């Protein structure tokens, strides 16, 4: 009878450890993802621009905060490449740009209606 309680206790400890490990892994994955500012350029964006439409995909200002939102991810699902400030994202490519210092990047944007975009990276 005592060995049965020992086995059940051992199983309980193993289950508790698995729950704790699962929570730690889940939290670290959420923290890693939370550092990203993601923009998706949908398929057909280039055609919409050529037709004179404003695809309203990219904001005029992109605000990033070091240690919080300090990775810019631009996924280009379009059939043409696009320039977003200092960065070129080819057709079907994904740009993943990490920022480590405060700065303001301003430049041409082939998607935004003003043809300009500002990427503002600040300290927390």
CATH-defined architecture of the largest domain? Sandwich
Query: What is the residue-mean pLDDT, rounded to a whole number?
Result: 83
Instruction: Report the end-to-end length measured between terminal Cα atoms.
Output: 58 Å
- CATH topology name of the largest domain, in short, is Immunoglobulin-like
Indicate the overall shape: elongated
Low-confidence stretches: none
Largest sheet: 3 strands, mixed
CATH class of the largest domain: Mainly Beta
Total number of distinct structural domains: 2
**Rg, Å, rounded:** 23 Å
Which strand order does the major sheet show? Answer: 1-3-6
| Element string (H = helix, E = strand) | HEHEEEEEEE
Q: How much helicity do the residues have?
A: 25-40%
Tell me the CATH superfamily of the largest domain.
Cupredoxins -  blue copper proteins
Structural class: alpha/beta
Task: Work out the number of β strands.
Answer: 8
Please give the count of helices. Answer: 2
């Amino acid at each position: 009878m005592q060995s049965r309680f020992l086995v059940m206790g051992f199983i309980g400890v193993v289950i508790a450890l698995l729950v704790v490990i699962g929570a730690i892994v889940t939290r670290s994955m959420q923290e890693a993802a939370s550092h990203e500012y993601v923009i998706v350029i949908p398929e057909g964006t280039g055609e919409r621009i050529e037709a004179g439409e404003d695809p309203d995909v990219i904001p005029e200002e992109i605000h990033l905060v070091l240690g919080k939102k300090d990775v810019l991810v631009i996924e280009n699902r379009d059939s043409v490449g696009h320039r977003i400030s200092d960065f070129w994202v080819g057709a079907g490519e994904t740009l993943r740009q990490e920022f480590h210092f405060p700065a303001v990047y301003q430049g041409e944007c082939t998607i935004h209606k003003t043809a300009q975009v500002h990427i503002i990276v600040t300290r927390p």
